[in-house]
């Protein structure tokens, strides 16, 4: 604790903080109307006042943030930074600003300036973020040591843990070809170093159909992809449209997925995922809809820190400005394909950046707590790629920022209570292309209505996959029944140039129709031109497996795919899409320690990835043997059931 290196680092941090505070206060006082004096000596005195007020108030405010949790922590986190400046200006000996409105305005300006200056000083590095995270981790570990009977106060740094742990980071929407290209280009120094040094290796895996986050996570976390036929779908038995990113629907879906034996069942932690994987701790998990509560100090620390939520809010405004500029450049250059990047996406982009930083703070806390397994989904790349394109410069910059976060986690590893092995994977890829509406001047809904008349089927789209439901019938219809109600529907869809495959059930099983032929999926018989040829060697197996999904549509559509560019025509207004087949959307990736065994030479489907991860957990000794049904029933009867932590 008293080594020269640490003393110098601490002095450097104090000097930097003092310099930033001086510059911020000088600029703020200069901009405030009616402030006549900006004397350097007075300002230096105010710097000391700010430091003293911060030293007293911030620990108290942090306690309040911890107690409030959730939304209260977010609000108090912003108020905390402003309150420190307001109090300091109020007791300023020079008394240059008076009146609460002026004090609050000056404090807000100071907080904004501080965030901008800190960002400029830290540009290209994550040193400040790492220092804050390490401070959080040491505090968590010392608290645990005290609870275990250790000394109340110690200056000794906790030693790195020896027992193994598994940290699984999902880079949402990242295809294997994009990742390989980025590594070869040298744009991802962290992943590139792991792969070039031989510590890790990279392999692709095939997602199957549907290629969506909920379906893939149902498989990866629970081994149950067939419960999820798309990103959204209709259930005839309840008359309900299910949307998998709505918390209430996600909770219903998870109840169907979970058998108590998910990937994270043995003390694992789920962070930012669609489903829990039967984790003991759930943070920002959609199916457990709530913000992290009082037990998540990583959430509280991020919200209360000057380098946390407040800084992210200010920089989020910069993200919005950057997004408007990048969208304007696409329009001026007439870059095609493209879609509108306004509306809700302007809020999604800074929100995903904020969520990334929060997630890393939550991971740091759980590493300090010694969670045996952690699974976290980082969505930055996926959100931007949907609207900019999966290989466009904006998307690649998001991927580079995620690579930096992997570097941050590697730097935090020595502070963890376990020796964590890192696995990086994606849930699906993305395929680019002009949308169906852009190409043909009408939406898929309008086409279906034109072909079917007064009572059109319900159209539910997920990227370039669409499920059609004849909602007036309580059961799934076959081709003959569909033709009786809508005789022009199936032939009209199959003949349309924007529809590549139409799948319906016939007496001898599901049949895939195209513009010039058909493919009987069950017996692999082709008549005319095989409509599955542009979709690759897995297409037949993918469609057959998809036909066995719960709540599948009466008609299943896959949009056309260009055999040269592999571009698809999404049924949603997204230039980068996923959900169906064609292009890179089914080409996911898995990066893992190079010496770890792979049980299957080819990972086909998210369920296969689930079983591979389970085998690695077994190998590390992090998974208890599964009980038989009788043993599990006896254990439940013998002991009271402990409820899982549901912090979000």
From TrEMBL:
Name by which UniProt lists this protein: Alkaline phosphatase family protein
Pfam families membership: Phosphodiest
Annotated source species: Paractinoplanes rhizophilus
Keywords, in A-Z order: Membrane, Transmembrane, Transmembrane helix
Transmembrane segments: 61-88, 100-121
UniProt xrefs under InterPro entries: Alkaline_phosphatase_core_sf, Phosphodiest/P_Trfase
């Amino acid at each position: 604790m008293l080594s020269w290196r640490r003393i110098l680092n601490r002095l450097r941090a104090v000097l930097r903080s003092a310099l930033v505070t001086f510059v911020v206060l000088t600029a703020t006082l200069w901009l405030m109307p009616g402030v006549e004096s900006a004397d350097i000596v007075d300002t230096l005195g105010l710097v000391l006042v700010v430091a003293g007020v911060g030293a007293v108030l911030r620990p108290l405010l942090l306690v309040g943030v911890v107690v409030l949790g959730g939304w209260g922590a977010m609000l108090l986190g912003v108020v905390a930074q402003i309150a420190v400046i307001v109090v300091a200006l109020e007791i300023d000996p020079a008394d240059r600003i008076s009146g609460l409105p002026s004090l609050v305005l000056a404090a807000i300006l100071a907080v904004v300036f501080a965030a901008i200056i800190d960002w400029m000083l830290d540009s290209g590095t994550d040193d400040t973020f790492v220092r804050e995270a390490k401070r959080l981790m040491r505090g968590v570990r010392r608290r645990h040591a005290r609870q275990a009977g250790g000394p109340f106060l110690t200056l000794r740094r906790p030693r790195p843990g020896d027992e193994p742990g598994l940290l699984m980071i999902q880079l949402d929407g990242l295809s294997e070809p994009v990742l390989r290209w980025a590594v070869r280009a040298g744009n991802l120094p962290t992943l590139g170093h792991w792969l070039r040094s031989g510590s890790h290796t990279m392999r692709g895996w095939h997602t199957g159909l549907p290629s969506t986050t909920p379906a893939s996570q149902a498989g990866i976390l629970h081994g149950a992809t067939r419960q999820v036929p798309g990103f959204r779908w209709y259930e005839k038995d309840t008359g309900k449209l299910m949307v998998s990113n709505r918390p209430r629907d996600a909770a219903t879906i998870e109840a169907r997925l979970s058998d108590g034996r998910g990937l994270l069942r043995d003390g694992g932690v789920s962070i930012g995922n669609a489903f829990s994987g039967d984790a003991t701790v759930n943070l920002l998990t959609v199916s457990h809809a709530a913000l992290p509560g009082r037990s998540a100090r990583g959430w509280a620390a991020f919200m209360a820190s000057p380098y946390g939520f407040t800084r992210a809010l200010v920089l989020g405004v910069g993200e919005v400005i950057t997004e408007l500029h990048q969208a304007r450049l696409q329009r001026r250059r007439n870059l095609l394909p493209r879609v509108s990047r306004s509306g809700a996406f302007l809020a999604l982009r800074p929100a995903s950046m904020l969520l990334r930083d929060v997630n890393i703070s939550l991971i740091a806390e759980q590493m300090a707590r010694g969670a045996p397994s952690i699974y976290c989904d980082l969505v930055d790349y996926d959100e931007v790629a949907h609207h900019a394109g999966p290989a466009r410069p904006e998307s690649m910059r998001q991927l580079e920022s995620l690579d930096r976060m992997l570097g941050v986690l590697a730097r935090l590893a020595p502070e963890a209570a376990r020796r964590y092995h890192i696995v990086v994977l994606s849930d699906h890829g993305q395929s680019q292309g002009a949308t169906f509406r852009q190409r043909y001047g009408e939406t898929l809904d309008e086409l279906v209505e034109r072909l079917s008349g007064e009572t059109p089927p319900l159209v539910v789209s997920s990227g370039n996959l669409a499920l059609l439901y004849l909602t007036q019938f309580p059961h799934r219809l076959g081709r003959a029944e569909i033709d009786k109600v809508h005789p022009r529907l199936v032939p009209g869809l199959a003949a349309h140039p924007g529809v590549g495959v139409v799948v319906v059930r016939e007496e001898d099983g599901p049949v895939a129709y195209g513009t010039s032929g058909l493919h009987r999926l069950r017996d692999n018989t082709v008549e005319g031109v095989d409509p599955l040829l542009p979709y690759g060697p897995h297409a037949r197996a993918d469609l057959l497996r998809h036909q066995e999904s719960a709540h599948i549509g009466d008609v299943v559509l896959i949009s056309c795919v260009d055999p040269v560019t592999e571009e698809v025509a999404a049924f949603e207004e997204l230039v980068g899409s996923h959900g169906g087949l064609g292009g890179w959307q089914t080409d996911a990736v898995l990066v893992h320690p190079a010496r770890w065994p792979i049980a299957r030479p080819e990972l086909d489907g998210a369920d296969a990835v689930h079983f591979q991860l389970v085998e690695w957990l077994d190998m590390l000794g992090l998974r208890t043997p599964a009980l038989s049904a009788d043993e599990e029933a006896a254990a439940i009867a013998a002991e009271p059931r402990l409820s899982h932590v549901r912090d979000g």
